[in-house]
Every structure is written in structure tokens, then in C-alpha cells.
Amino acid sequence: MALSAAFYSCSQPSLILSCRTREPNFSQTACFHKTLTVRGSSTLDYSKLSVDDKSSAPLKTNSWQWKFKENSISIYYEEHEKDREGPSKNILMIPTISDVSTVEEWRSVANTLVQQVGSVNWRATIVDWPGLGYSDRPKMDYTAAVMEKFLVDFINAPDGPIRGSENDLVVFGGGHAATLTIRAVKRGAVKPKAIAAVAPTWAGPLPIVFGRDSNMETRYGLLRGTLRAPAVGWMMYNMLVSNEKSIESQYKSHVYSNPDNVTPGIIESRYALTKRKGARYAPAAFLTGLLDAVQSREEFLELFADMGNKKIPVVVVSTEGSPKRSKAEMEALREAKGVTKFVEVPGALLPQEEYPAMVAEELYQFLREIFESKD
């Protein structure tokens, strides 16, 4: 988000480092692709949660050690659960990938869902990606394959926080997280019972604007190298990304749909993330397309189509205020094979954070339609 905001889409395919784009790579759209009709009396009260309700305390916070090559990376995660009798199922919530990616974007949704009373009790785990959020950020080569391996290892680890949930796991992913999850499912590496794709994306901020020809790929490589460099990398990162004015500007212009919802607390929290040790490595990869799960819209649609073949229900949650390029990618999913349900909520690029009650409502109805209707 903020990192992509440091670049501007000019009429010629060149990278201008002194100005900003108005559109990073996130997207949303909506409507029902297939009408499902389980609307019970336990719907949520939208008035109970607002954008400022970010203080929903998790039941437990902890870290898990991810062993990757020569690294042992501390992965931050949170658990949200209501102590009550009866069967329970697990939801893994994965944040949108960006330089300010954080578990915080899912907290209110998690807290709302675990409070619901129904035939199924929900337990939510929110995890930060390696190199992002509150997880460790070692200097290594971050790629889509690396992030996908992490996701697979986290879900399947016998010592992991969601061990034993392979028969009842649901995955909620924002942005690139949704696409990486679906790619892992397509390969058969993970087998969730259902998936929620909130603003699913497939192209990093620069590739979606400037394309992927050989000339641009060379420039992306140069930019990546500069951002990773010991001294000049921090200078560039601080100038273009790691400052409160830049973060606030982007949140007000397109990350949130209502500028009044962008509070000082949100900006301070995101700014602090950009100051963590190693903060620029993973975002540099995301910005330049190294974390893209696919290389084209056709491949993007094929991933979703395969979920239909595997009979895995998928809901796509979109927003009314998505940027033009991002929304175009979401529109491609409107009637796509494999998309069980397609809905729209208010918001821009982070609806789960700006309008958590509305997102929680749609996701809870999806869960009830998939699971409780069978009971």
C-alpha cells in the first residue's frame, strides 16, 4: 500500500521516484454469482463495531519458529476464541501483503466472528507473514514461492498453532494472501474446507501499472537492489515510504474510502511497522512483482476455476470504492468459474479494517451457508 504509493504511473513506461501513484495493487468488486439463502436471526449489528474498534484483544499472542533454509524466523500470531461448549472450527486469517501489512487489519472481524452463537463455534488465528507485520524480517530473497511455502508449513506443521485442524480449516486472505492460498490449494499442498478472498490480487503495484516486459523487469531489479542496499536503501525507503505524511496520504486517497476513518492511531501504528529492523526487504519484493502468484489475468482466473473442480466454496468480498485498475481485475471474477459467492461492501482497499462489521457479516453468512445449513 504505502510502498506502492511512492511511485507514479506516467504516460511513458518509466519509474519516477519523486512522485506518487494513486493506485497500488489491491482490488474489489461484487454481486452474487450464485444465490445462497441461509439468513438466520443471528446476523450482526453493524453499529457495534467501527473503524476505531481496533482494541479487540486476542485470547493469546505468541510466536512460532519457522525453519527456512538457514533461518529460524519468529512468526507472530494471535488467537481469538470464545470459551463455550460444543464443536468448533478454525479460521486462519492472513493479512494483505504490503509494507504496512499487519494482523491488526483482521482483529475486529476475528473478535466479532468468535462471539457469534450458532451450531458451530469459531476459533480464529491471525498470522503475520515472514518479513512483515510483527514477524521477524531477515534479509533474504522473498518470492511468491517462499511465501507460499511459509503458508503451507504454517498450516501443516505438527507443532503449529493450528495443528490438527486439517479437517475443518477455513482460510480468509486479503490481497495477495488470497491468491497465494488458492495456488497452494491448487497444488494440493493445503486442503481448506472453504476460502474467503477479500480484495484478491495477483500483480504487484509496479507490474500492474508498468507491465512486465524485459525492459521493465530490468528496472524492477535495479530498484529492488537499491532498496535492499545497506545505506542508500534505508535512505530511499525513509524518503518514499517510511514517513507519516506519505502513509496518511495513501490511506486517505485509496486505502480507506472515508478519509475521516483514518485516525492518528492507525497512522502511528503503520509508521511504527516501517521502522522495524529489516522492514524494507519483503515490501521491495512485493512492489516489484516477486510476490505475485501468477503472471496474468488468465492464470488468476484459472486458479479460482480449479476451486470449483475441487468443490471448495469460495466467497469474494469486494468494495464499492476500489481503484480503477484493481477493480477491473475483480470484475473479471464476477462470473468466474469457481467463485461460489461474490459480494460488495463499502470501503476501498482494506474493507476488513475500515468496515469490519460489514465484512464480518458477509463472512459469517458465508460460513453459516456452508457449514450450519448441513447440521
Can you summarize this structure?
The chain is α/β, with parallel strands linked by helices and 375 residues long. The protein has 13 helices and eight strands. Helix 2 packs across helix 3, helix 5 crosses helix 6 and helix 7 crosses helix 8.
Flag low-confidence runs: 1-55
Arrangement of strands in the largest sheet: 1-2-4-3-5-6-7-8
Structural class: alpha/beta
CATH homologous superfamily? Alpha/Beta hydrolase fold, catalytic domain
CATH class: Alpha Beta
Average pLDDT, rounded to a whole number, is 84
Largest sheet: 8 strands, mixed
* Domains (count): 1
Number of beta-strand segments = 8
Features:
Rossmann fold
Folded structure, characterized:
By secondary structure, this protein is of the alpha/beta class. The chain has a single domain (23-209, 272-374), classed as 3-Layer(aba) Sandwich (Rossmann fold), CATH 3.40.50.1820. Helices cover 35% and strands 15% of the residues. It has 13 helices and eight strands. It has an eight-stranded mixed sheet with strand order 1-2-4-3-5-6-7-8, sandwiched between helices. Helix 2 (144-156) packs across helix 3, helix 5 packs across helix 6 (232-240) and helix 7 (244-255) packs across helix 8 (264-273). The chain starts with 59 loop residues before the first strand and ends in a 5-residue tail after the last helix. The relative contact order is 0.21. Mean pLDDT is 84; it is low at 1-55.
